[in-house]
Amino acid sequence: VPATRVELTVSCRQLLDRDTFSKSDPLCVLYTQRPGSHQWREFGRTEVIDNSLNPDFLRKFVLDYCFEERQNLRFDLYDVDSKSPDLSKHDFLGQAFCTLGEIVGSAGSRLEKPLTGIPGKKCGTIILLAEELGNCRDVATLQFCANKLDKKDFFGKSDPFMVFYRSNEDGTFTICHKTEVVRNTLNPVWAAFAIPVRALCNGDHDRAIKVEIYDWDRDGSHDFIGEFTTSYRELARGQSHFNVYEVVNPWKKMKKKKYLNSGTVTLLSFAVEAEHTFLDYIRGGTQLNFTVAIDFTASNGNPSQPTSLHYLSPFQLNAYSLALRAVGDIIQDYDSDKMFPALGFGAKVPPDGRVSHEFPLNGDASNPACRGIAGVLEAYQRSLRRVQLYGPTNFAPVVNHVARSAATVLDGSQYFVLLIITDGVISDMAQTKEAIVNAAKLPMSIIIVGVGQAEFDAMVELDGDDIRISSRGKVAERDIVQFVPFRDYMSGGPGAGLSMAGLAREVLAEIPDQLLSYMKARGIKPLSVSPMPSETPPP
């Protein structure tokens, strides 16, 4: 599935005036970076707007948006003085840097930033608005019944089912839906089914849709009863005399003069609604709350030894810090207060040296939140110096800690993401499974990053991609855990940045769908965001 496409609209207010006799003639140039590269490449230019310090550019930038990647953007503004495409021949008016996630994650997906880049001068502001391009996200719900179908079975009546095909440009047909089989009847009523409009007609409402009706046979040699054709436009008229179809078997028609039909199919109901996307919820104001839990158990090795996973080297970040940075840098764009609760587990904590499985890294039990990812890293490094690594490795307490917060906000306005960084040796598997099964009902996801060289079999089991996790016979209603082994991304040397981007991609890839699965299961629609009224330029 291609990434969502986002259209960026650019406006500026109070640009510098570089022209002596008239106002500036601004142009905006967008630069992007490839993942893992620091090189800026020109992506595109807006049109030039003559004599305006408050331009609203008409030409949009259309970008592929990936939640799980950090997509850096740079906007440069120029006052165009001639027809030359060479930017060095024009006056620079300032620039702004941001990520695509920052724009999308802002209220109403609208970000305002000051333009900078000319020392000692106020360069004005840039206003960026992101809108998701609807690639026909409508989903149609249809229900059909049939009357007096041909009897195909020697002993009982038929067991009918329908198969839907959409037509392609070249006149061939592609299967797009099969109904269930209704047993032993010539007058079946099939269950309503939902199908993306794209799948039914690929966006062309007049394209033929062919429907075939079969009598089901156990051995797979289903008997053809007949067929009819329609189109999305016809179906969209809903239940009416237009949507009663004669089921015709062309072979019978050729052979028998008196043949009328093999029964009729009637459309009972038709409804269409837009399928909501991750971006709809983010635009509607859903906030992602990010909590970090770090494994302080003795199996990580003595932090004062270079072999320890917690070793604090003056020259490079350890695996815990790298994983935290890679994931945190992306997720912080979606968290408006940039305050991240950070917990540790499996250590003996001062003052009394008791083992704790959910202690605040900042030492403040009443408010474990740290300011920004930098604040979390700092609190982590401070904790390492004041606690004693111990054990066992219990995940359930931190999962339940976040679940308690998530249980207080079930209305879709907040979604909680717990990042557990661990060396993977888990002691409370049964309790953790139970905690995850309970958390699957809540607006939360769990990311586990495994560091070190251990076997991570238990983590793979928690991930539940192949077999959905269960506890005491109860199966988790959603898959909310994503596990990634850090070592797969540990390439030292110049490519290290790229592998961190890869780690973040892998870790965050499932979050949008997990958020959607929660909202859908609870019937929560995104708060609609009214488009911002365009600002009136200052006089």
UniProtKB/TrEMBL annotation:
Q: Which Gene3D superfamilies match?
A: C2 domain (2.60.40.150)
InterPro entries, A to Z: C2_dom, C2_domain_sf, C2B_Copine, Copine, Copine_C, VWF_A, vWFA_dom_sf
Q: Please state every residue range assigned to the domain named C2.
A: 1-115, 122-245
- The answer on whether this UniProt entry bears the keyword Calcium reads yes
Q: Could you state one GO biological process linked to this protein? A: cellular response to calcium ion
**Annotated coiled-coil segments of the chain:** none
**One Gene Ontology cellular component:** plasma membrane
Asked if the Swiss-Prot or TrEMBL record annotates the protein with the keyword Electron transport, the reply is no
**What PANTHER family does UniProt report for this protein, alphabetically?**
COPINE, COPINE-5
Family membership: Belongs to the copine family.
Specify the protein name: Copine-8
